[in-house]
Structures are given as C-alpha cells and as structure tokens.
Amino acid sequence: MFSGIVEETARVVAIEKELDNVHLTLTCSFVGELKIDQSVSHNGVCLTVVRLTDNTYTVTAMRETLERSNLAMLREGDAVNVERSMMMNGRLDGHIVQGHVDQTAECVSVEDQKGSYVFRFHYTSSPEMVRRGYVTVDKGSVTVNGVSLTVCRPTDNEFEVCIIPYTFENTNFHDIHVGSVVNLEFDIIGKYLSRMVPYFK
Description:
By secondary structure, the protein is mostly beta strands.
C-alpha cells in the first residue's frame, strides 16, 4: 500500500524482454536501502524488487501490467516516479493508493498558471466502468503516475489536476505534455462503494 507521495524519480538504465515479461532496471538514491521482495511503486504500479546491485535494482512487469499501464512505453533514460510502500506508523499525507493501476489516460491540455500548472486528462469510460468505480468526482482523489492528486472539473471521461511547482519539479510531471500517456488509479473507496450500490436498491 502507498500514499501517492512520490519520493523521487528513478532513472531507467536497462530494459530486458523475456517472453511476455519486461524486466526494468532502475537507479535512484535509496537503492542501498532496498531488499529483494520489497514493493516499490513505479508511475503508480506496484512492482517487486527481484534483483539488486550496488547502484541499481530490477523489477518485473507481466503482460497484465504492461497492458493496463504506460510501463511498456518506457525507454532507457526515462524518469519514473517511485515510492516505497507506506509505513503504518506515520501520517497518511496523500490518500490510500494500492499500486494497482486501473487504466491509462492521455494528456489533452497543459495550462501554465504563472508557476503552477493545470493538466487535463482524457480516459476511456463506459457505464460498466463507472459501475466498477472507474470514475472521478469533483474534489475527490485520483492517482496519476503514482502521484496523489485532487480532481478538478471532472466530466464523464475527463478531469483536471493542479500541480504546484514542487510537484512539477520533483516528479515526472515536468515530462508530461499533450499526447503523453499516464497511469490512473481511481479511489479504492469509490470503487468499493460503486460495487455495493446495487445491493442497496
């Protein structure tokens, strides 16, 4: 479980394909603190550390993960938002994030508001997806590339998020432009409520 508060961006240093799996090797400042089997969020995707060296670690993404996320689009040198799993003895600064990406979205606009930025994203929606809780609500929570954010001006299949300078500079939001594909995880509480509603009619 994660909070959506990105620790830093890791850099992809190698990509290895093995059958339908992809092994991603990355480097970041906390490599020396990682252990095999530890969970780390990568652009919002929970992946398990499977290999370590002095300055790199490797995680594996399987077909389901690659199909639902933007990890298959990564290239060597790309910056990836990373967060280690949440410690239960601290404050929850973001919101409850599972690291289970629901789908991707496309950036359709970026507005510079003299320091801060407003990003608008479009995602595929349908009545069935809404019933499963794949929906955004005004002032609700959403995870974009692993970043816990507040939803603004949602429609049936679009929403905006406001990014302060610190988040812009310390996550890969500074690499997101019109046409960029990002990972979405909708609020788990909303998903549970959506699934339970039919039983209370």
